[in-house]
Amino acid sequence: MRPVLPVRAVAEERLALLDWKRRIFDLHREVRADDDPARAWNTWRTVRDDLIANHSQSPVDQSRREDVTPSYFDYDPAARVLARVEPLKLEHAELPMSRDDGTHFTRFGNAVFELHGSQLALGLYWLEAYGGGVFLSFTDETSGDLTYGAGRYLLDTVKAPISGPSTGSSCSTSTSPSTRRVPTTRCGPARLHHPRTASPSRSAPVSDARRSDDGEGRT
Length: 219
What we know:
Layout lengths: L6 H27 L3 H18 L14 E4 L11 E14 L2 E16 L2 E10 L6 E5 L13 E5 L22 E6 L4 E5 L12 E7 L7
Helix pairs in contact: 1-2
């Protein structure tokens, strides 16, 4: 249980969180406006690393920041794809999160795309909370080893206005028992790691999405 903070401290904390959100939104806006994807990716890394290392709302405690730093897979232009949205009949879903018992969503479609010759799809969910928002997550063969075991999100418009991997305070743990993993190329962020930990770019090949045994992709 978190300690009760004095009134002034609560106000300062809320304003610091607002500043974090503003900077993240500005970062994604800058990335979206850049016509060079590799340069935009490097900008995203640089600004994000600075926020994690120096901002008071960093997900890494002050006492651990000298020992814990973000780690990333190498930029892979082949993993940058365009997806089409396939509408689905609305379906309620309660997705477990790392910091609570579950969050209510409505699945409204699939993001369908081709990656390295495989036809894949990821579920699109609408957050059933104030303001709403689109949520799209995935797991791959790094999950639970080089990256967060519950998966990572490609799109979470509550936290940022456009798609792009990011480290948040919670992450979806939903899976589908009918899915299998499709080997593809590593991309996106790995986990926060100690500098003595081996670089994920030297690991074995992994996947970026999963596909069901009948060929239809699901999250």
